[in-house]
Task: structure prediction
Amino acid sequence: MQFSNLCLNNVNRLFEAMVGIDQVLEKLSTVIDPDLKKDIVSMGMIKDLELNDGNLKFTLELTTPACPFNVEIEDDVRKVIGEITDLKNFDLKVTAKVMEGRSLDADTGMASVKNIIGVASGKGGVGKSTVSLNLALALSESGAKVGLLDADIYGPSIPLMLGMKDGFMEVEDNKLQPADSHGLKVVSFGFFADQSNQAAIYRGPIISGILKQFLVDTNWSDLDYLIVDLPPGTGDIPLTLAQTIPITGILVVTTPQDVASNVAVKAVSMFEKLNVPIIGVVENMSHFICPNCDEKHYIFGDGGAKKISEQFNMPFLGEIPLNSGIMAGSDLGKPIMITNPDSPSADAFRKSAKNIAAQCSILAAKLQDEMTSESSNEESMPEASTS
Ligand SMILES: Nc1ncnc2c1ncn2[C@@H]1O[C@H](COP(=O)(O)OP(=O)(O)OP(=O)(O)O)[C@@H](O)[C@H]1O
Ligand SMILES: [Mg+2]
Result:
């Protein structure tokens, strides 16, 4: 009798605890991720939840360490949990696990790379390489694992921008080992000094072959984001990237003048025709910040990139100032994200990087939804008759 009373008490306690967990989840499901527009419970962001005698503990797992709303989401979580009476203790851990923004099943060659972002432009000299490098550094600073592939085989500039003119890559077990710089895994044709001098004479299939090798035959190890700095325009290299492997999407870099001359539009149209998602557009050399009064001057006109973002219905992800520090950093091998991290220019890169990471999470969530609905369609298909 005593034993069964004990059991009953335990069951009651368990029941109370279960009701408590329901209550916690109900509260948490009112917290909406502003980017994904979904609640954090159904997105699976709550992990290792424990509730014992009024002591609540769980991990909030964000979809990227560069989430622009991480503070807001954490504040909202604390607020709704604070509304639950009878809690004695609340222990919250916040982590991030980057979502897969590309179908890894369809790409066994690069299955350890969760997101691939191609950086493209309509014409040359708009600052793709500068933007690619500083964005990669900003993502890495947030805690993500980042690689940078300099896919400009005709004119590799990343080694110079990283001060790695004499850098090289080793080959181990038939795989290229990327060079390391400021925490980034870097691959560039510029590391093959002898061959890169010949690049100008290489044509279509050879160029495509080199890019494919850089993508697939490199030991990237686990990466959250691989940034691919493309040559300008719509030639063999952007085409090979779009057609060889599934990528998360394309980031378009423009300058106000580039928008005015309408060349950015050509690049966007090509990737759209190939069904490659466009992550959004960043406007480089967008404005000049006066060092005396801190005022922004839109020397080449205001709102150009916003206009193409509206025209193509793609997100506008940020504007990078025209700044001699950015130029000197690129030319001297000392990127501004490293040499002057507190500058407005570094902040502009950080802000754009967060918006890009958020867009990758949105594309990843969309992909997940598509895969779930595909697999549930397959399950509901009648079995093929064998007779
Ligand atoms: N925001 C900026 N402010 C000042 N200078 C910049 C800025 N962005 C890039 N630059 C400078 O503009 C020049 C071209 O930049 P970069 O090489 O990054 O362009 P790109 O689009 O990669 O060129 P390409 O088409 O030749 O590959 C470089 O000298 C770089 O230092
Ligand atoms: Mg370049």
Remarks:
- The chain has a mean pLDDT of 87.
- The pocket of magnesium ion (ligand 2) is lined by residues 128-129, 152, 157, 229 (CB under 6 Å).
- The chain has two domains: 2-96, 108-359.
